[in-house]
Write a structure and sequence with these properties.
single chain, about 160 residues, 7 helices, about 5% strand
């Protein structure tokens, strides 16, 4: 009976119907699971690749002078941007990577894409841009109702 369950567990994606905390405990005890070793690993690695690019941009304000977040656009050196980004960032490796992957894989909602990664302050949260990219961002985020999705930071007042 156990062999039959073991053979069908992964292919039938039975893990998707289990409690997240139970899945995570099972994963840690066994040293991995179908969620961590499957498609969600690829999703997580893609998020880390994006975080690496964002950090490189954020740390080069002379090349990327503007940064956009959920609430508008700022100068990259603005204190609001610094508050929403980590003080230091390094891509996780070794056991730190494995644990971060597990936390992500067992918290992501495959339908919405939302996960614990979205609120994790260890990763860059905002998008730094060149002046040209900032103009494109403003154009894209200024809709028929004016600047509903676009506003300039009241603190730094970026001159885009």
């Amino acid at each position: 009976m156990k062999q039959g369950v073991a053979q069908l567990y992964g292919p039938l994606r039975c893990f998707e119907d289990e409690d997240e905390d139970d899945q995570l405990a099972f994963c840690r005890a066994r040293g991995g699971c179908p969620l961590c070793q499957g498609e969600r690993k690829g999703w997580f690695d893609a998020l880390l690749d994006s975080a690496d690019r964002e950090w490189a941009r954020f740390t080069a304000p002379e090349e990327y002078p503007f940064t956009a977040g959920q609430n508008g656009i700022h100068e990259t050196t603005c204190s609001v941007v610094a508050r929403h980004n980590p003080a230091t960032y390094a891509r996780p490796t070794g056991p730190t990577y494995v644990e971060a992957l597990r936390r992500y894989a067992h918290s992501v909602d495959p339908y919405s894409g939302r996960s614990d990664f979205d609120g994790d302050q260890n990763y860059p949260r905002m998008h730094s841009m060149t002046t040209e990219e900032a103009h494109q961002w403003i154009s894209k985020n200024t809709g028929p109702k004016g600047g509903r999705n676009y506003k300039r930071c009241a603190r730094c007042g970026p001159a885009v």
